[in-house]
Every structure is written in C-alpha cells, then in structure tokens.
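Fold it.
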Amino acid sequence: MNKQDISNTKQLLSTSKKIVIVPHKNPDGDAIGSILGLYHYLLKSNHQVQVITPNDYPNFLKWIPGEQNILKHDSQTKKCDDIINDADIIFTLDFNALHRTGSMETVLEASKAIKIMIDHHQAPDDYATYIFSDVSMSSTCEMVYHFIDMLGDLNVIDINIATCLYVGIMTDTGSFRFSSTSSKTHRVIADLIDKGANNSEIHNNVYDTNSYKSLQLLGCALTNLKVIPESKTAYITLSQEELNRYDFKKGDTEGIVNYGLSLENIVLAAIFIEDKQEGIVKISLRSKGSFSVNDMSRTHFDGGGHINAAGGKSNLSLKDTVEKFISILPSYNKALNNE
C-alpha cells in the first residue's frame, strides 16, 4: 500500500462501517488467524463486523478467540449473501483471486462494497480497490500486524488480536523454520507475546490435538511414501478408501507433505489426496531452495501459492494424476538437481 492508499483506508475506517471479512475456501491457520485478528481490531473501532468463511475448517482452529462468531457460507448461504450484499467494505484475506472462495465468488464479484485485499501470494488479481500485497511476508497474519501498524494502532493490539495473529504466523512458517521467517517476523512475534499471546499454549492447541485415527492415517500416508532419486522428489498418495478407513476429518492431512521434504537429498515433495465428493485430487507441493512449486502448480495443476509451498488440483483419477506428475518431472530434473 502506498501512502495515499493508507490515508484513504484510514479515512474510510474513521467512521462506523458494515464490514465483512472473507478468507479462501478450506481456510488454514493463517486464514483463520488473520480474519479473526482483523475482526477483533475492527470491533475495537466500533465497526459492525462479520467474518464469513466459504466452508468449514479443522477442529484444531476452533478454540481461537472469536471463532464462535464465524458464519459458514456453504451451510448459511442466504444469511451470508444478505450480509455481503449489505456491506460497505469487504476485506479479503490470504487469497488474491476471487475464485479461491469457491461458491462465494459470484456474490463477492457482484458486491458494490469497497474491497480491500491483504495477501502474500504471488500474482494478485485486480478486483480490490486497495491492495496490500507482499510476497516476501511470512504470512497474512504478519501482514495484518503491519496493516494495523500502518494505521497507527499497534497500541490497540490486545491478547485476542495477538493470539489470532500468532497462530497464523506460527502455522504458515512451519513453527518459524521456513525461509520466509525473517528477523522482522521474529520481532513481530516478540511483540505479540509481549501483548499477551501465550506461545506454548497456542502451539499445544494447534499441534497436540491428534486423534488415534489421525495418527493411523499418518502411518498409512508414510507407508505410501515413494521416492524418485533422479528427480530428488518424494510423493505420498491417499485414496478416498484410505481416508474413509481412518475416519478422515478436515485437517488430518495437514503437514503430512512435509515428511517427504524432510528426507535427505529431497528437494520436491508432493501429496495427492483423492476427494470423491468434489471429483478431484487435491495436491500439495513443497520444495527447498529456489525451486518454485508455485510455477509448477500454476503450469500443470490449476493452482499456485509461494515459491516453496503451493497447492493445486487434478480432475484426473488418483492413478492418472500421479502418472502425470511423474511424467513432467524429467523436464524439471536440471533445476531440481541444481539445488
């Protein structure tokens, strides 16, 4: 955001507005943390604020302050559409193309509300009036912190805002181990702890909630792990039958792809998860160094994300999707072996 955009946004928020905050479909820790962190901040400025997610999210995010006030578009469609149509401002967080909201795309596109984007993914669309986009940032939660700072309101961050923002920064940096974690990120985290975020409690709430079945599913995924040494690649598959066998719940496969990336001499890791209900295979890609899974996902799997973390999908069968993935690897071998 340039100085004029910041000034305009500050003026826009100087009087009470009806505001909607929206994340992408299948929201993760950064999406839920950022929308709720912004929600608490805007409430303190006497705005009428409603958070609406396209669909549900994992149980390990349902303890975050304010979560009980979230509406879900897929199960409360009319109510959500009415609120969106009546909004003065719509904040879109942790995505930069409206199709990422799934069935919400149409109502958001038709809305006359002023749209403000806060996001750290590459190649943003131009649907928003004001755009705060920075691909160097660790997370959208870190960007919300800086957004509040730009408005001159760091002093209003309380324990609720601090807790929400800590969640997203922690999860999107892999507990601060990914290369996107900068010295600035650590300074933000330190301030959030000073403002009340309980780091050990937050970590336990997010990561120490595994069920017996979810650990069995992890074991199944690791049994399915395959390595392609010449391409420095590891991949995992999970079929719908396997998901059903271990009573899959949303969030149970979170982070499994990173096990492949943890192998010695592996630069690229992928997980392919069959979703019979949506008729697709969901794909998560991770990489090390300068190898861009964002480019790979955009080119081959109708997705995108960051250099080292991206997602996509395939309309092929699970078997054919994996075969497609394997078939394109030779064209990337030089780049993968240079890392």
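The longest strand covers residues 268-275.
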